[in-house]
Every structure is written in C-alpha cells, then in structure tokens.
Amino acid sequence: MRSKIGLAAILVLAVASHGWAQGRSRGGGSLDLTVGGCGISFGNSTRVNGLRFNWSDRYLELINGVNVTFWRPLDHPGGTINGLALGLAPAADRLHGISVGLGAVLPWRYSAGLSVGVLAGVSDGSMYGINVGGLALVAQGDLEGVNLGGLALVSEGGQRGLNLGGLALVAERQITGINAGGLAVVSEGPVQGASLGGLAVVSEAGMIGISVGGLAVVAEGALRGVNLGGLAVVSEEGMTGLNVGGLAVVAEGALRGVNLGGLAVVSEEGLTGINVGGLAAVAQGPINGAALSLGAVVSDYGVRGLAVGGYKVESHDLDGASMAVGFTRTRDLRGLSIAAYNRVDRSQQGLTIGLYNRARRLKGVQIGLLNYAGNKRPGLRYLPIINAHFD
Prior knowledge:
66% strand
C-alpha cells in the first residue's frame, strides 16, 4: 500500500513539475495538473482545457472551460476564452460564452454570449449577445443583442437589438431596435425601431419607426414613422407619418401624413395630409390635403384641399375649400371660400361668402353684405347681397 501511495505521489509531482516547466517556458509561471493539456491549472498558463485559476492574465492563447482571474490584466492579455470567465475583470481578445466580472468585463476584440460587469462592460472591439454593465457598457465597436447599462450605453460603432441606458444611449453609428435612454438617445447615424428618450431622441442622420422624446425629437435627416416630442419634432429634411409636437412640428423639407403642433406646423417645402397647428400652419411650398389652425394657414405656393384658419387663410392659389373667421387672400380661387373678408387678387372661379367679397375677375358667385367684381360693367361692379358673373 505504501508503495502505491509513493508511486502516485511521484506521478503527481512529475506531472506538476512538467506543467510548471511548460508554464515557465511560455513566459508565464503556472502549476499545471494536466494530461494532454486537459485538467487544472494554477497560474499564467497559456493553453488549458478544463479549470484554470490565475491572479492576472497575460499571454493568453486558448482557454476552454472555466477561467478564474482575481485581478485585472496589467496589459493586453490576448487569446481566447471559451466557456465561463469569472473574476474581478475577465479579459481576453475574444470571450465566448459567459463572462462575469465583479468590476468589469474587458473583451479586447469582442465578446459573444452573456457578459455581465457589475460595474461596467468595456471593449476595444464589439460585444454580441446579452451584455450588462452595472454603470455602463462602453465599446469601441458595436453593441448587438440585449444591451443594458445602468447609466449609459456608449459605442463608437452601432447599437442593435434591445438597448437600455439609465441615462443615455450614445452611438457614433446607427441605433436599431428597441432603444430607451432615461435622458436621451443620441446617434451620429440613423435611429431605427422604437426609441424613447426621457428628454430627447437625437440623430445626426434620420429616424425610422417610433421615436418619442420627452422634450424633443430632432434629426438632421428625414423622419419616417411615428414621432412624438413633448415640445417639438424637428427635421432638417422632411417627415412622413404621424408627427406630434407639444409646441411645434418643424421641417426644412416636406411634411407628409398627420402633423400636429400645439402652436405651429412649419415646412420650408410643403404640407401633405392632415396638418393642424394651434396658431399657424405655414409652408413655403404647397399645402395638399387639410390644414387647420386657430390662427393662420399660409402657403407661399398654393392650397389644394381644405384650409381652415381662425384668423386668416393666405395663399398664392386656392383649389378646394377655405374658411376663416378673419380674412382669406389669394391670387386665384377655384372652389369655395368663407370668411369675413374674401380677397381674390386675380381670378375667382366658384363661390365666396362673407361680409365683403372682392375679386378682380369673377366667374362664379359672391354672397355678402357688399360684393365687388372688377370685370363687370361700371355700376354693376359693387352689389349688395349677391353678385354673379360667368363670362
């Protein structure tokens, strides 16, 4: 019996000394209880299949199994860990599987799987899968999958999937999926999907999907979908879909769809669809569809459809129906206009109803206390109650 125990001890010591020598020969220092690279390793071994414990990793090549490190790496660790990586700050070029760090998870190139940093997840590359940072997730590459940061998600690449940051999401490329930032969602690229920012959703490109900002939704590109801003929805290009701003909806391009602004709806091009501005609906281009305001409806080009202004409706041309408590002014009218004062500077074809109706050329009917048609014979140009001319 004693001889068997002695033989076993000799074999263990032989394996251990062989492993120690191997570890030292690779620039580390380790005690490897392994056979064919499989078993248990203590120290800075470079390749192990099984269970490995080390204080701080360097010169990694390949670890398959469970890797436990008690301190953060002092330098670039290199290598790949497949399986379970645990410690204060698990790190490698590539982390595949489950990585849990009491301080942080540090993939230098990328991580794939489940990565949980109690304080943070930080990558010089990308993170794929389920990524959780107690305070923040920060990647120089992409964040893809389920990404959760207690305070923030920050990436120099894009963010795709379910992206939640307690205070903010910030990306230098696109943000795609379900995106929520307690204060803001900010992207230098496009924002696509469903995005919620406690204060704002901001894109230096465009947005597609549902975007809700407590104060504002702002894009340098086009907005398409449903865009809701507590104060404003603003685009340097156009908007298409449902756009609602507590104070205003403003676009340098065209507005198409349903556009609602508590104070104003403003476009430097045109309005198409249903457009409601509390005090004004204004377009430098044409208004097509319905435009309604308690104040003014104004187009530098023309209105085709229905225009209702509490104070005035003013347009280059009017094709359709116009109603205003104050006055309506247009160059050419084709259709119906109802206002206290209807002024047609050139040609009226249709019906005007008001206190005073004035048309330079009348081909239709005027109904009001006083009516003027400049193309009728002298003495018949001003008529009370009703005036008509069809030549």
